[in-house]
Each structure stands twice: as C-alpha cells, then as structure tokens.
Amino acid sequence: MAIAVSALTTLTTPYMIKLAVPLSSGFSKNCHGVAKTFQRYTSWIHDRSPQGDSAMIVQFILKIVAQIIVNSMFIAAVFIAAMFVVDTISRFDSVILGRDIIVLGDSMHKTIACGVSLLISLPFIIASYRKLKAFAMILSEMIIKSNMLGKQTYNVRRVIFETIPVIAIIWIMSVIFSISHQILPSPQTLLMLEAGAFMVALIFWKQFIRIQSWLQIQLFAVLEETHEETTHNAPTN
After folding, report:
1. Distance between terminal CA atoms of the chain?
2. Other Cβ atoms closer than 10 A to 74
3. What's the structural domain count of the chain?
4. What's the whole-model pTM score?
C-alpha cells in the first residue's frame, strides 16, 4: 500500500505543479468576492486590536491578572496542604510542654492549621492586594475621565481603587475557605485569626513584600532553568 501511494504521488506531482498556477489564477478571478471578504475581515480584526498605548495597557493588565491568579493558586495550595497535615496531627491527642501534658482537641487542630496557613499565605495575599490595587487604579482612570467630576475626580477614583481590592480579596479568601472548610475552626475563632493575621500584615507589611518578591524571583529562575534544560535535552532532527 505504501509503495502504491508513493508511486502515485511521484507520477502526479509534475502535473499538479503545472496546474497550480492556472488553478490559483482561476480561483482568484472567480472567487474575488470571497477573497475581498477575507481581506475586509483581516482589516477589521487589525483595526479592533489595541495599538500603541492601548496595547501596552492591555499587556500590563493581562500581566497583573496572571500574577493575581498565580498568587491565589499559591494561597489555595497552602490551605489544601494544611488539610492533609491536619489528618496527621489529629492522631496526636496531646503534646508534652515541659512537665505538663496539653490535650489537643479537634477544634485546636483546626485552629492551629488555619492560623499557620494564614500566616504562610500572608505574603501572597499582600501581593494579590497590591496587584489588585494597581488594576483598580487603571480601571478607575478608564472609567472616570479627568474632566468628568472636576475636583471630585480623584476622590471618586480613590473610592474605586480602594474598594475593589478589598472586595476581591474577600471573595478570593471566601472561595479558598469554602474549598478548605475541613480545617476551618468556629466562626468566632476564624474571625479572631483573621484579625490577628491583619495586624501581623500591617506590622510586617514591608517584610512580607520582600519575602514574596524573593519567592517570585526564585520561581521564575527555576522555570527558566527548567525551560533551558528542556530545550537543551530536546531531540534534534
């Protein structure tokens, strides 16, 4: 079968080459309207695509959204990992602290797991908040023009770019809490943990930003090294 196909291809190739030009010319003449429609569609797509400053803004927004998604995935990964850790530490009903034996119940296991998860996630939560605020600032300038509200323009913009990040962080954490509900303590305890995490974030804000920046640099370095190794080890023809 393979030999027959090869022979048929060899015999018909010269004729196909000779017929290529007449066929293309005939197609261009008879299908001029179709070709013109495709040209108009291409021009329409090109006109609708962002250019200049708009293209830069779109790229910047897409980069911000990608970083927010990555940070949210890290937060979710921390809480999901805590769910598996709780299964391990729940086997121990007590811990020895000096000469005293402290009995740990199920609620205490959840409180410890949730508190530690919040503490580990703080750098990524802060990074997501900062990226969301940058996105909200761009959005507020796009919605509220400079000459729209006069002296109140900045105040209205500030309401937008201060409110959107808070609402978005609350929504992100609500989704993550719903996924990791197995390690959530009582609502009162969870509220206390959130208040404590908020205070820690305010006190060590700059330190958490440095930690997240260092982790991001290390992540990109590992990804770049992996890409280089994959390219180097890829088979060449």
Report:
1. 27
2. 20
3. 1
4. 0.65
Q: Are 93 and 104 in contact (CB under 8 A)?
A: yes
Instruction: Per-residue pLDDT tens, the chain, 237 aa: give them.
Output: 545 545 555 556 665 666 666 666 665 666 656 556 656 655 655 555 555 566 777 788 888 888 888 888 988 999 988 888 777 766 655 554 444 444 456 677 788 888 889 998 898 898 889 889 888 888 888 888 777 777 788 888 888 888 999 999 999 999 999 888 888 888 898 899 989 998 998 898 888 888 877 877 776 677 666 656 666 665 555
Do the beta carbons of residue 138 and residue 101 sit within 8 Å?
no
CB 182 within 8 A of CB 107: no
Do the domain assignments include residue 99? yes
Closest among 126, 120, 138, 121 to 63, alpha carbons compared: 138
Closest CA to 205 of 92, 107, 129: 129
Q: Is residue 203, in this structure, part of any structural domain at all?
A: yes
CA 154 to CA 105: how far, in whole Å? 52
The domain containing residue 146 runs over which residues? 68-214
Q: Are 114 and 193 in contact (CB under 8 A)?
A: yes
Q: Is 225 part of a structural domain of the chain?
A: no
The HSE-up count of residue 21 (CA atoms within 13 Å, CB side) is 3
Residue 197 is assigned to a structural domain of this protein: yes
